[in-house]
Every structure is written in structure tokens, then in C-alpha cells.
Write a structure and sequence with these properties.
- There is one protein chain.
- By secondary structure, this protein is of the alpha+beta class.
- The protein has a domain at 261-388 and 413-437 and 513-621: Up-down Bundle (Outer membrane efflux proteins (OEP)).
- The protein is 54% helix and 14% strand.
- It is built from 15 helices and 10 strands.
- Strands 2-3-4-5-7-8 form a 6-stranded antiparallel sheet, with helices on one face. The chain has a two-stranded parallel ribbon with strand order 1-6. Strands 9-10 form a two-stranded antiparallel sheet.
- Helix 2 (33-56) packs across helix 7 (250-313), helix 7 (250-313) packs antiparallel against helix 13 (431-452) and helix 7 packs antiparallel against helix 15.
């Protein structure tokens, strides 16, 4: 299907050649905007698959079309949230403006069935961590922009490849003229058509050929006419600078590598994006856990204030201690309200990270944190079940020399692998390091190109033409290969003035040194990150053990203080109970923080090693260390 195209057509008895040429140009040169867009999509998709196989060893589904039921739109509609215009719902909801080329585009793609489609249209919408990762891949503005960067790099590559393809061109023209400057008025119509073919070879040779047909009709002096046919061909060959295949292909080489770099950068982006989403998700749940702890602490301090009031009325506590209890109750209320508002703020920030409306009603799955905190809970339960040994057996005498035990790797997690192995995996798998190393090769090629530009330029230009254009007194209706015009030109541009090229050449070495430093800097940063992640894993694991014991001690302290206070032990004051309750709240929060930190450190380590695989839907596949990777150190 072709869109309507109109071209001027000449009149007269000898129009067949021009008409045929015009019809050919119309049929080959006119496509609808939709056909051009679909063709561009296909070309870019094919290039991306090709480069995915080259860069990653496999290809996956890739599309920049956004699905029709992205969660952002559903929330705006289902929860009746305010929005400013149709643009808030997506480009497919925009009203088409005047002269819009495609009435049915942009349109939203109908998605395949996935877990997000099954989300209940309820208030609030509940998201698990896995669903949050999927929502991020489908809704995030940054995620979509990263995909579009790959797509645009693929189109840029296609444009560079086009420089070495057969390029067809054509033109049809009709010229009407009237001349009244002489003794009589002369009127004429000249119709012409030109079709041409050009090609640039990778050696730098430029070939071109044109075929022209011209029909001239003189409307006065008896209506004379003539038909002319001509052909013109040329070849241009660079012989010195600019003549090497590596020089001619350099823009194409850059474009080829740019697509690979874009794919590497997208893979790295997916890793850091997914870990960032998980970090924020767990941080919100930690805030929610702090709300629960603050609420329990507030309730406990209300009870303590009531107890102190009763004891004071019975003459067993002073009014000062009652006031202390009331003050702690008020502080607990303030802490509870602050925890709630901090949770709401962090939840809104998380929604924005997913590119969801901040005012949408969403809640996270608390069971994710419960599963994460399960090892900590088991530690607390294990400590509770332990039988206490007599003090004389469990506590050495005070004068015994203190031996400090370093952190143990007895309970090391599967990702607490030895440092050299972790660094080696990172250097082998980090996509951004591959991009930086590719930048060194790019800089080396730039030196070669800059050196080539310093030389002399010697160019050969050859042309040959056959036939000619008819006039009102003659008739040249066919090509005459026995009568042609030939020319050859040899141009030598001597390298007397190469100041710009000289500076470019020197700067190319500076750029090379900068590219090398970029690799070194990134390599050192990767090693630093890996070492820090491993330290964080060890510290968080030890903190889990310590905080589990702290929670147990704090709980025992609160219970024993309450019992002593109720029993009227004189040495126990309300301040002791309040301090014990504060210590319990702090220990509970720190236990949750240690559990979250350990999980985030695991994800960060996998991301820093480049081993956290993210599929097309945004879901991750975690790295499973080989046996022997986590050698005890």
C-alpha cells in the first residue's frame, strides 16, 4: 500500500520514456509514514538481536512499545487519582493534532498475561518484592529511557551501514517558460527525469551513475520538440590519506560498537536498578517494622505510666518518678507519630522510584521482611532455649587475661566467598568494565585516524558521459556509446597546513591516556566495592548474632525490672524500667536493620560482581557460588 503521491506529467507525442521513468520513481519512492516506522522498528530490532548475540551470547525479547495496562495508568483510573491531562495516561491517550500522520499510533500494546495483570483492583494494591521488580521494568521512566537508548543506537548504526549500500535516487521535473524579451513570444515546456545509483565502497572508492531523459516542447514556431537521453558516470578514488579501509569504516565501526556498549550499559543498569528497588523495598518494610516497634513501646510506656500512678497513690513511688514515666510516655507518642510519618514518606519515595503516582494507595508485603528476619528470630529462639550455666562456670574471674575472639566464619553465608575469587569474578563479568576497556580500543583507533589525517591527499576522479539533451532543432533519442565525453582528474593536496590535524593527533594520545585511566579507576573502584561488600556481609552477620542476644537481654531486663518494681524493691525506680524499655526498642530496631543490611549486602555483592542476571521482565536470577568459592579465610 502506498500513500498518494502526485508528480507533474508532460504532454506531447514522445512522452513514453519520461512517463515510464516518472511512474518508476513514484512506485519506488512513496511509502506511508506507518510503513517507514514499521520498517525502522524491524531494522532496529534485527540489529539489537544481532548485537545481543555478539555481546551476551544470546538474544531476548526487546521492544520499546509500552503495554496498555501499566500499573501507573491503572492506579490513576481505578483509584480515581487526579491528573493534569491525557498525557498522564500515556501517549496513546493524546488527542491527535492537525495533520497527524498516523491516526492509530502511538498505541498501547496488549500485553501477554503476567502476574501484574492479576493484581486485584483494590485499595490499597499489595505488591510483593517480585511484583515490585516487574512493575519497575514496565513503569520506570529510567528503565524505558535505557531501552530507548539501545533502540536509537541501533537506528544510528543502520544509518552508518546505509553509507555503504546502493543508494538510488530519482527526480522528475517539468519546466514551463515564456520569453517576451524579443520580437516574438517564445513558450516552451521541458520535462525531465533522472534516476541515479551511487555506492561507497569500504576502500573509500565512490561510484555514481545517472540516467537522464529530457523532453523539450516548443509551443510556438510550429510546436517543435526533441527527446534527449544522457548518461553520466563517475568514480572517485582516494589514494593517500583517507584511503584505508580502517579509515573509511571508522564511523561504521564506532556505530557498531556503540550498540554493543548500549547493551552492556543496559545490562548493568538492570542490575543496579533491581538492587536499588530491593533496597528501597526492604527499607520501607524496615520503617514499617519500626512503626510496629514504636507502637508496642508506646503501649508499654502507657502501661508503665499507669503503674507508676497507682504506685504513687499507694505511697510507694515519688511524684518525680511519676513525672518521669509520663514524660517517657509523651516521648514515645512523639516517636510513634514520627515513625508513621517517616514510613509514609519512604513509601511515597519508593512509589516514585517505580514511576507510580505518589498518591496511589499501595502497600508492601510484610511477609518479605518476616522471611528475611527468620534467621534472626531463630537466633533469638535458640538463645532462649539455651540452658544457663552457673555463673562460676560461665564467667571467668575478673583478673583473668581477656582474650578477644575475632569474627568467625563458622556461620558464613553462601555469598561470603573469598576475596580473590570475588574480585576475579567481578573483573570477568562487569559490563561497565567492558565498556571502559572498549573505550581504550576506541581511543587507539582514534590515534590511527588522526595520524592518517596528517598526510597528503591524493584523489583520482574519473568521469564518462554518453548522449545529450535534445533541442528544438535536433533529436537525440538514444545513448550513443561510440560518442562519449571522458575526463580524469588527479588532485594532490600537499600537507603544508596541518595545524588542526597536528593538534588533533596530539590530543588523541591524551584521550588514550584518559581512557586507560578510566579503566584503572573503574578497576580499583570495583575492587574497593567488592572488599567493602564482603566486610559488610561479615559485619551484618556478626551484628545479627549480637542484636539477637541484645533483644533477649533487653526482654529479660524489662521483665525483671517490672517484677522488682511491682514487688516494691527499694533499689528499683521507674527510671530503670523506662531505660529498659528504651533499650528493648533500640535492640529490636537494630536486629531488623542487621537482617536487612545482610540481605542488601548479598544483592550488592552480586551486582558488583556482575553476576545478578535480570530477565526481560525485570526478575532476577541470583548467583549460586560453586563449591569452594567461599573458602574459609
Amino acid at each position: 500500500m502506498f500513500s498518494e503521491c502526485k508528480a507533474a506529467t508532460p504532454g506531447g507525442g514522445k512522452l513514453w520514456a519520461v512517463m515510464a521513468l516518472g511512474a518508476l520513481l513514484v512506485q519506488t519512492g512513496c511509502k506511508s509514514p506507518s510503513e517507514y516506522r514499521v520498517n525502522a522498528d524491524k531494522v532496529a530490532t534485527d540489529i539489537i538481536r544481532e548485537k545481543q548475540n555478539e555481546a551476551l551470547g544470546q538474544s531476548g525479547e526487546f521492544s520499546i512499545e509500552r503495554p496498555s495496562d501499566i500499573l501507573r495508568r491503572r492506579l490513576l483510573i481505578d483509584q480515581n487519582l487526579p491528573y493534569s491531562s491525557e498525557a498522564s495516561l500515556g501517549a496513546d491517550n493524546l488527542k491527535t493534532i492537525e495533520h497527524w500522520p498516523e491516526q492509530d499510533y502511538p498505541r498501547a500494546e496488549e500485553p501477554a498475561l503476567d502476574p501484574l495483570v492479576l493484581l486485584e483492583k483494590s485499595k490499597p494494591v499489595k505488591l510483593s518484592l517480585i511484583q515490585a521488580l516487574q512493575v519497575g521494568a514496565r513503569n520506570s521512566f529510567d528503565y524505558q529511557k535505557s531501552k530507548e537508548d539501545i533502540f536509537q543506537a541501533a537506528l544510528a548504526l543502520d544509518l552508518q551501514r546505509n553509507e555503504f549500500r546502493n543508494i538510488f535516487g530519482g527526480q522528475v521535473a517539468s519546466l514551463a517558460s515564456t520569453n517576451t524579451t524579443g520580437d516574438r513570444t517564445d513558450s516552451a515546456i521541458e520535462n525531465s527525469g533522472v534516476v541515479g545509483l551511487s555506492r561507497t565502497l569500504e576502500s573509500g572508492v565512490e561510484l555514481s551513475t545517472d540516467l537522464a531523459i529530457t523532453l523539450a516542447n516548443l509551443l510556438t514556431m510550429g510546436g517543435a520538440s526533441s527527446l534527449g537521453v544522457s548518461s553520466d558516470s563517475s568514480v572517485m578514488i582516494p589514494l593517500l590519506r583517507g584511503s584505508g579501509r580502517h579509515i573509511v569504516r571508522e564511523p561504521l565501526t564506532k556505530a557498531e560498537r556503540a550498540v554493543v556498549y548500549a547493551i552492556y550499559q543496559f545490562e548493568r543498569f538492570k542490575q543496579t536498578f533491581s538492587v536499588g528497588i530491593a533496597r528501597q523495598y526492604l527499607a520501607v518494610l524496615r520503617q514499617l517494622d519500626q512503626v510496629r516497634n514504636a507502637e508496642e513501646n508506646y503501649r508499654s510506656l502507657i502501661v508503665s505510666a499507669r503503674r507508676s500512678r497507682r504506685l504513687a497513690d499507694a505511697g510507694r513511688l515519688s511524684e518525680i518518678q511519676v513525672d518521669q514515666a509520663v514524660q517517657n510516655e509523651l516521648r514515645a507518642r512523639n516517636g510513634w507519630i514520627s515513625a508513621i510519618e517517616s514510613y509514609k514518606s519512604s513509601l511515597d519515595s519508593f512509589k516514585s522510584s517505580l514511576s507510580l503516582p505518589p498518591d496511589a494507595e499501595i502497600e508492601l508485603d510484610r511477609s518479605e521482611l518476616e522471611r528475611l528476619a527468620a534467621p534472626a528470630s531463630q537466633m533469638v529462639a535458640g538463645l532462649t532455649d539455651e540452658k544457663e550455666s552457673p555463673a562460676s562456670e560461665s564467667v571467668p574471674a575478673a583478673d583473668v587475661q581477656v582474650e578477644l575472639a575475632p569474627p568467625s566464619r563458622e556461620d558464613a553465608g553462601p555469598l561470603e566467598i573469598n576475596e580473590p575469587e570475588a574480585v576475579g569474578l567481578a573483573l570477568d563479568n562487569r559490563f561497565d568494565l567492558r565498556v571502559a576497556e572498549g573505550g581504550v580500543y576506541d581511543a587507539q583507533r582514534a590515534v590511527v585516524v588522526a595520524a592518517d589525517a596528517l598526510g597528503a591527499e591524493l584523489t583520482f576522479l574519473g568521469r564518462v558521459g554518453y548522449g545529450g539533451t535534445g533541442d528544438p532543432t535536433g533529436n537525440d533519442q538514444k545513448l550513443r556509446f561510440d560518442k562519449g565525453a571522458y575526463s580524469a582528474l588527479l588532485t594532490l593536496d600537499l600537507p603544508f597546513e596541518r595545524t588542526r590535524e597536528r593538534n588533533d593527533y596530539r590530543n588523541s594520545f591524551i584521550s588514550l591516556e584518559q581512557a586507560v585511566r578510566n579503566v584503572q579507576k573503574l578497576e580499583d573502584q570495583i575492587k574497593l566495592n567488592i572488599r567493602n561488600r564482603l566486610r559488610t556481609l561479615l559485619e551484618s552477620r556478626e551484628s545479627l548474632k549480637i542484636q539477637a542476644k541484645s533483644v533477649l537481654v533487653a526482654e529479660k531486663r524489662v521483665k525483671s525490672t517490672e517484677l522488682f518494681l511491682e514487688a516494691g524493691r527499694g533499689q528499683i525506680q521507674i527510671r530503670d524500667l523506662l531505660e529498659a524499655q528504651d533499650a528493648l526498642l533500640s535492640a529490636q530496631n537494630l536486629l531488623t536493620l542487621a537482617a536487612v543490611n545482610y540481605r542488601i549486602a548479598e544483592l550488592d555483592l552480586q551486582s558488583d560482581m556482575g553476576l545478578l542476571k535480570i530477565d526481560d521482565k525485570g526478575l532476577w536470577q541470583e548467583y549460586v557460588p560453586r563449591e569452594g568459592d567461599n573458602v574459609k579465610q
